[in-house]
Amino acid sequence: MTSASPIRNISDTAAWVAMYRAMETEREDPVFRDPYARRLAGSRGEEIMSSIKVARKHAWSYTARTYLLDTFVTQEVQAGADMVINLAAGLDTRPYRMQLPASLQWIEIDLPDLIAYKEEILRNEKPVCKLERVRLDLSDTTARRSLFTDLGRRAKRVMIVSEGLLGYLTADEVCELAKDLAAQAPFHRWGIDLVSPALRKMLERQIGSHLSQAGAPLKFGPEEGPAFFTPCGWKPLEVHSMLHAAAKLKRAPFFLRLFALFPDSKGTKPKQIWGGAVLLGRP
Fold this sequence. Notes:
- By secondary structure, this protein is of the alpha/beta class.
- It has a single domain, classed as Vaccinia Virus protein VP39 (Rossmann fold), CATH 3.40.50.
- The chain is built from 9 helices and 7 strands; from the N terminus they run αααβαβαβαβαβαβαβ.
- It has helices at 12-25, 37-51, 59-78, 94-97, 112-121, 141-153, 171-182, 197-213, 242-248, and strands at residues 83-87, 105-110, 130-135, 158-162, 187-195, 235-241, 275-281.
- A 7-stranded mixed sheet has the order 3-2-1-4-5-7-6.
- Helix 1 (12-25) packs across helix 3.
- The longest helix has 20 residues, at 59-78.
């Protein structure tokens, strides 16, 4: 860690995101409740939040992102999904805090050290469904393809979640991952977050130096928007902007509320600052 950045590595971003969930939970009118978030964020999450000047002003977008992906998960479970696979799960607690059927298989995949930390913090807590954690670096394509094949054999309808992952990958890496997921017939839906090129550039100006020093620069913000995924084996089914969701949830900052009155561009205008959540499905 350098004196300029409190973020030591990409795993530290998980503690940072957990702090956003803790902040929302501790409101008098929370959109969701995550009673484990502050413990998981720990002192590292608090340090990051207090050290990065612009961090708190982005809280509304993280609340919207969590809400939208929660909604995708709920929809798919109600539609019959018998497995959810969370790629780069970080310190996510959905299998503990959401209302899910006890029979649901929930698979978390992430780096060994991060999983070990999470298991230690949550050692006395009980998930509401069948939770399994897999220690794996997703950049190992051979290992992940083998894992996806194995998981595909164990389920009939699978929902994939990748929250806060794709932004750190190149376009080629994202498409390759998409094709690996599409190769498994039971993998029906995939919930992601996505930013436009204009928003990626803005975030680079605001927090890019911290992420780059931690070896996790922002890379992905496709010109095509959600349509990027079509030649990679997936088609956009639902596209929701964070701003419009935040306005609906009464979390959008005052100075942005006017922009929420305009129609959602659905990520189709690369020069427009846009971030959203996308539900992808098989063609």
